[in-house]
Amino acid sequence: MGTPNGGVDFRSQSPRCTGRAGRHRPGRIPSGRGAYRPLGLWIITDQAAEYLALSRWTVTQKIRRGELGAIKHGKTYRTTLKWCADYMSGKA
């Protein structure tokens, strides 16, 4: 079969390039199609502020100081209700 690159079809000879898709790095939220994202697990700082009865700025400062557990997803921080409850009980 003739191909424009001299008669060799490289697509059939090389394995499919998968890149980093499908790999999960610890401390990160998987994103993209088919990613496992359970609903209700992660909350953003606005929701955490409402739950903790604090301002969003205060919650962000507590996250940056390490007083409240969270991960950074893009430009936003995400935490869990369990981490918020641990913070309220003094375990964090």
Identify the notable features of this structure and list them briefly.
SinI_DNA-bd; Helix-turn-helix domain-containing protein; three-stranded antiparallel beta sheet; DNA binding; 4 helices; alpha+beta
Describe this structure in a few short sentences.
The protein is an alpha+beta fold and about 90 residues long.
Q: What is the overall shape? A: globular
Largest sheet: 3 strands, antiparallel
Number of strands: 3
What is the residue-mean pLDDT, rounded to a whole number? 74
CATH architecture of the domain at 40-92: Orthogonal Bundle
Taken as a percent bin, the fraction of beta residues is 5-15%
CATH topological fold name of the domain at 40-92: Multidrug-efflux Transporter Regulator, Chain: A, Domain 2
How do the strands and helices of this protein lay out in sequence?
Elements: H1 10-13, E1 43-44, H2 45-52, H3 56-65, E2 71-73, E3 76-79, H4 81-89
Antiparallel strand pairs: 1-3, 2-3
Helix pairs in contact: 2-3
Describe this structure in words.
The chain is α+β, with helices and mostly antiparallel strands and 92 residues long. The protein has a domain at 40-92: Multidrug-efflux Transporter Regulator, Chain: A, Domain 2. It has helices at residues 10-13, 45-52, 56-65, 81-89; strands at 43-44, 71-73, 76-79. Strand 2 (71-73) and strand 3 (76-79) form a beta hairpin. The chain is globular, with a radius of gyration of 22 Å. The termini are far apart. The model is unreliable at 13-17 (pLDDT under 50).
